[in-house]
């Protein structure tokens, strides 16, 4: 009677022993104990991964005793992994986190405050673009060091413009011109669209519209971040512009999945795309040009654009590891390294001094044609999205608003009013 | 004694000592799996239940016990009722659809014809493909302007559809995508079960003059009923927890048309609200629903499934 | 057995299976073609399934981009161990649920099924904490950050128990009873009588468990903190940046990742057909 119970027990013990025995060849979490050993979670791929690896090994060479180990984590997943690790008691030393998460990341207690660190002599905090500094700061507290900066501009297909006998976009072009161009570039019979827009309703949908809102002279919230301010003539103007293209002219390809529009442009099916520098390397089949955003005549917005910087955030794993992490990040974001990274990846420089240097534009354009327009466009970033913890909820409301207009389910005025009411509720609730 | 008598005796209600033995043996067999599933499956679930009574946001280390407030909010949350509706519609289409496709293909594959291993492998392969690849292909196929489906529609003089761009149609595209992705699983399950259908029963029915369809309905299907119950239960449990395909294609849109419960709770926990307590409460609502539906399926199944022991 | 008179030189079922297989395999065609294209041709929409330039170099490139040898090894160790554990533990438990009467059987089964009904997004963090605690205190470090964290929590699943319980219940009990009468104990009955009969189900469970383990992404993402312990899905993720993806390398990686799964299935297939002795079980 006891034999089979024993045997069953033996079998399970064997199985588990096999499991753990066989798994003895895995290695555990790096960076424990040694205070000069830090771990970074980042999502660099391709050229960025190579450039970053080079910089890391250079740092290790010039700082003997310091070990920087990197772990690849897709940027979309980093916050989830960080949250789990924080609750579980072993956060990384540094993590790459989206700027839009900053106000919520700031709530994590093990996030290190860097306000004094970035004021150290030689760091030159103001050399970072204003958009980056805005996103790294939450309620006056600096919680991150800029990792990446970008902005939105218009990438257009020169060949399609030539075929339609249209003048190429000029630096002082207007949104009405954009709309007219889009109409001319649309040809249903050959499935060609003037422009495109992503419609999953996520932040990608929202921030494209916010650029228009700002260009029309509007703002998202009031300065105190207590009330919605986008239900204004500027809001109406921006939504009507989108509506004209999506519904009236049907010159806008609507991409509900955020995955097709870039390849469509690369296949010559789209005339103009509002997008960022990261997409340029995905257009090898197109003679493209880049132009800054159009303006709305008669408004104060100018050729404003929007920027989406991301942060390196340091987590507290003990004073010595924090100090090692700080020193590494300050070195990584110093002008020399920032320039190296930009030149080898095509990513925009995180420092103005690097971007404004004389031959920098030419060097960048060699690797990635016309990316210099994005670099100078950084000067058109005047404001940032509200740095409040409820922004993700507000973004969702705004996303629904924009998509409902694009799909013809709501008129702009109604959509604005409804969204403003919801946003005010959210803002009131968070007080 | 004769074999028949011995068997009859073995079947007779065992004596008390034998019952205790059986109990202990049963527990011995069950314990290893129970330990693993209990530790890594049940304990986290209990933990999450506790979380649902707090306002934990997964970020700051302080969280307060707030009683049933999350559940009260849940009941009044319009998105939750929409999400429930979407989830139920999805499940009601996905489960029968997958079972029918799987059964049809399994019956077709359950024969000794050439290349049968290739067909079976093709079915299994649909489970092996990464969800991202599956999503990308279907997004392409159903693209309103450039996809094959609308192209075929135009050939058949059917009106062009907006598919993933239409709040009315997006969910059905997801249904189609997931039926495709899961039919391989149903095929594999039914194939294993079809092995248990004795050929001589089928032959006997044929000799008795029953047509192929009648044989299938009267002999094969009932013998497949345990597999059908298993599939119905498992597919339902999965359908009610749909997430990956929504995350990789429409992200809950357009206009929330494909927001199912798990996607909504994911948003609540990790992207929009950072409210783990609320997300856990939603998960528990879903848990109750799944438990109830599964219990009903087992109850109904008891009447319709036929075990040969 | 008299079959319908064949008008065609092949079984008419091929006419059904071939179109069905085309539908089933279509994404694979796209996958494979993308994996041998140049990046320029892969970045087209709608995708063009007729590349002008074939680039087989994608495969060595993908393999070299990250330590894929290590990822394959880790994935293999995790998957094989998980399958073995599952077959042993779930067969024992499934058999008990199917055949034994014991106190609390129904309640325990319901509790097990319940673990399938809460989404992973919610149980992820508690599971992490528990795995970490067990790893540190009971398994000598085979917890978070170690591939043991990928094996132990999945060593038995309610799915496996449920699946085998259903299957065991379909087996006619006569064989087991005969063996018991002959004096065999329960374990021997399971091992000698039931498991051989259950070969198709075991092979199916093995194939499904292998697939689940091989493709598992979210838990390894959370639990693993070093490249040395990473598995294949984590490795493939390195081709996906936030804004740009190296599609050709990713698809090449996907194809390479599929190969072992298909091999496992091809092997498992041989057991799908039950042994001759097991057929014709009517009326003992």
Features:
heterotrimer, B: 309 residues, mainly alpha, MetI-like fold, 2 domains, 13 helices, 0% strand, C: 284 residues, 14 helices, 65% helix, globular, disordered C terminus
Structure description:
Chain A is an alpha/beta fold. Chain A has 2 domains: 37-150 and 308-380, 3-Layer(aba) Sandwich (D-Maltodextrin-Binding Protein, domain 2), CATH 3.40.190; 153-307 and 386-430, Periplasmic binding protein-like II (D-Maltodextrin-Binding Protein, domain 2, 3-Layer(aba) Sandwich). Helix content of chain A is 45%, strand content 13%. Chain A has 17 helices and 12 strands. Chain A has helices spanning 2-22, 46-62, 75-88, 102-105, 130-136, 158-163, 175-185, 203-215, 233-248, 261-266, 319-332, 335-345, 352-356, 360-367, 371-377, 391-406, 412-430, and strands at 37-42, 67-72, 94-98, 137-138, 141-142, 145-148, 153-157, 193-198, 252-255, 270-275, 288-291, 310-314. In chain A, the strands form 3 sheets. A 5-stranded mixed sheet of chain A has the order 2-1-3-12-6, sandwiched between helices. In chain A, strands 9-8-10-7-11 form a 5-stranded mixed sheet. In chain A, strands 4-5 form a two-stranded antiparallel sheet. In chain A, helix 16 (391-406) runs antiparallel to helix 17 (412-430). Mean pLDDT of chain A is 90; it is low at 1-12 and 17-31. With 309 residues, chain B is mostly helical. Chain B folds into 2 domains: 3-51, no CATH class; 70-304, MetI-like (MetI-like fold). In chain B, helix 4 runs parallel beside helix 8, helix 9 (199-207) crosses helix 10 and helix 12 packs antiparallel against helix 13. The mean pLDDT of chain B is 88. In chain C, helix 4 (68-99) crosses helix 11 (199-215) and helix 11 (199-215) packs antiparallel against helix 14 (247-269). Chain C has a single domain, classed as MetI-like (MetI-like fold, Orthogonal Bundle). Mean pLDDT of chain C is 87; it is low at 275-284. Chain C has 14 helices and no strands. Chain C is 65% helix and 0% strand. Chain C is mostly helical. Chain C has helices at residues 13-35, 39-42, 58-65, 68-99, 105-114, 120-137, 148-151, 158-170, 174-181, 186-197, 199-215, 218-223, 232-237, 247-269.
């Amino acid at each position: 009677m006891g034999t089979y119970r024993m045997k069953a027990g033996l079998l399970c013990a064997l199985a588990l022993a096999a499991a753990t025995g066989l798994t003895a060849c895995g290695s555990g979490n790096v960076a424990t104990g040694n205070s000069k050993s830090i771990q970074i979670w980042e999502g660099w791929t391709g050229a960025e991964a190579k450039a970053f690896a080079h910089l890391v090994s250079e740092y290790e060479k010039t700082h003997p005793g310091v070990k920087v180990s990197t772990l690849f984590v897709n940027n979309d997943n980093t916050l989830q992994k960080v949250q789990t690790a924080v609750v579980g008691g072993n956060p990384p030393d540094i993590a790459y986190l989206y700027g839009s998460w900053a106000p919520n990341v700031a709530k994590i207690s093990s996030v290190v405050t860097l306000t004094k660190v970035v004021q150290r002599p030689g760091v030159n905090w103001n050399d970072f673009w204003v958009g980056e500094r805005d996103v790294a700061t939450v309620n006056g507290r600096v919680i991150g060091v800029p990792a990446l900066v970008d902005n939105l501009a218009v990438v257009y297909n020169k060949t399609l413009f030539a075929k339609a006998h249209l003048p190429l976009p000029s630096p002082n072009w207007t949104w009405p011109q954009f709309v007219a161009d889009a109409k001319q570039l649309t040809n249903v019979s050959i499935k060609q669209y003037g422009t495109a827009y992503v419609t999953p309703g996520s932040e990608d949908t929202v921030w494209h519209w916010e650029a228009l809102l700002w260009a029309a002279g509007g703002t998202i919230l009031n300065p105190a971040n207590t009330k919605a301010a986008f239900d204004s003539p500027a809001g109406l103007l921006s939504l009507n512009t989108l509506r004209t293209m999506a519904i009236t002219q049907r010159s806008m390809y609507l991409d509900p999945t955020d995955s097709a529009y870039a390849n469509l442009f690369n296949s010559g099916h789209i005339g103009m795309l509002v997008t960022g520098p990261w997409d340029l390397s995905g257009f090898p089949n197109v003679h493209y040009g880049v132009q800054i955003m159009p303006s709305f005549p008669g408004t104060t917005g100018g050729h404003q654009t929007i920027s989406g910087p991301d942060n390196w955030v340091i987590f507290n794993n003990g004073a010595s590891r924090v100090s090692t992490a700080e020193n590494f990040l300050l070195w990584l974001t110093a002008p020399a390294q920032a320039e190296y990274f930009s030149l080898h990846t095509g990513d925009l420089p995180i420092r103005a001094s690097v971007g404004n240097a004389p031959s920098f534009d030419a060097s960048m354009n060699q690797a990635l044609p016309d990316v210099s327009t994005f670099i100078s466009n950084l000067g058109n970033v005047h404001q940032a999205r509200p740095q409040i913890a409820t922004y993700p909820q507000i973004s969702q409301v705004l996303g629904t608003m924009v998509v409902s207009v694009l799909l013809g389910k709501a008129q702009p005025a109604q959509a604005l009013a409804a969204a403003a009411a919801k946003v005010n509720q959210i803002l009131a609730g968070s007080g | 004694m004769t074999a028949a008598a011995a068997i009859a005796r073995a079947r007779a209600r065992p004596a008390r000592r034998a019952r205790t033995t059986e109990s202990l043996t049963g527990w011995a067999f069950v314990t290893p799996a129970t330990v693993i599933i209990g530790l890594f499956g049940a304990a986290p679930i209990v933990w999450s239940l506790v979380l649902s009574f707090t306002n934990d946001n997964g970020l700051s280390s302080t969280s307060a016990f707030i009683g049933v407030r999350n559940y009260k909010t849940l009941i009044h949350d319009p998105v939750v009722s929409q999400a429930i509706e979407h989830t139920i519609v999805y499940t009601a289409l996905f489960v029968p659809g997958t079972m029918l496709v799987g059964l049809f293909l399994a019956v077709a594959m359950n024969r000794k014809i050439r290349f049968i291993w290739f067909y079976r492998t093709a079915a299994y392969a649909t489970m092996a493909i990464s969800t991202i690849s599956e999503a990308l292909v279907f997004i392409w196929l159903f693209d309103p302007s450039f996809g094959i489906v609308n192209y075929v529609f135009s050939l058949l003089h059917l009106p062009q559809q907006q598919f993933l761009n239409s709040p009315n149609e997006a969910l059905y595209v997801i249904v189609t995508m997931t039926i495709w992705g899961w039919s391989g699983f149903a095929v594999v399950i039914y194939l294993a079960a079809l092995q248990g259908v004795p050929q001589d029963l089928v032959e006997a029915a044929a000799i008795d003059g029953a047509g192929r369809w009648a044989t299938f309905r009267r002999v094969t299907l009932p013998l497949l009923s345990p597999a059908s119950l298993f599939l119905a239960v498992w597919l339902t449990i999965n359908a009610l927890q749909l997430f990956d395909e929504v995350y990789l294609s429409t992200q809950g849109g357009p206009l929330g048309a494909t927001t199912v419960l798990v996607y909504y709770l994911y948003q609540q926990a990790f992207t929009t609200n950072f409210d783990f307590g609320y997300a856990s409460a939603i998960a528990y609502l879903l848990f109750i629903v799944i438990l109830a539906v599964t219990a009903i399926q087992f109850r109904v199944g008891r009447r319709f499934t036929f075990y040969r022991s | 057995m008299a079959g319908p008179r064949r008008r065609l030189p092949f079984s008419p079922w091929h006419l059904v299976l071939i179109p069905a297989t085309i539908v089933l395999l279509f994404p694979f065609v796209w996958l494979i073609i993308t994996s041998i294209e140049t990046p320029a041709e892969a970045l087209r929409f709608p995708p063009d399934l007729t590349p002008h330039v074939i680039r087989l170099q994608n495969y060595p490139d993908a393999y070299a981009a990250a330590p894929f040898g290590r990822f394959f090894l880790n994935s293999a160790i995790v998957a094989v161990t998980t399958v073995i554990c599952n077959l042993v533990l779930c067969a024992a438990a499934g058999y008990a649920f199917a055949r034994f009467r014991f106190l609390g059987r129904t309640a325990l089964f319901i509790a097990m099924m319940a673990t399938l009904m809460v989404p992973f997004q919610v149980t992820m963090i508690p599971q992490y904490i528990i795995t970490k605690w067990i790893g540190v205190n009971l398994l000598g470090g085979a917890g978070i950050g170690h591939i043991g964290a990928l094996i132990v929590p999945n060593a038995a699943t309610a799915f496996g128990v449920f699946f085998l319980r259903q299957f065991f219940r379909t087996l006619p009990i006569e064989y087991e009873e005969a063996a018991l009468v002959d004096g065999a104990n329960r374990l021997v009955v399971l091992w000698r009588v039931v498991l051989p009969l259950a070969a198709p189900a075991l092979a199916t469970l093995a194939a499904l468990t292998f697939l689940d383990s091989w493709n598992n992404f979210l838990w390894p993402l959370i639990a693993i903190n070093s490249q040395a312990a990473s598995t294949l899905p984590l490795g493939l993720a390195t081709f996906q940046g936030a804004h740009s993806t190296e599609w050709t390398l990713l698809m090449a990686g996907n194809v390479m990742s599929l190969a072992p799964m298909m091999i496992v299935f091809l092997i498992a297939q041989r057991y799908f057909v039950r042994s001759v002795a097991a057929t014709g079980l009517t009326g003992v």
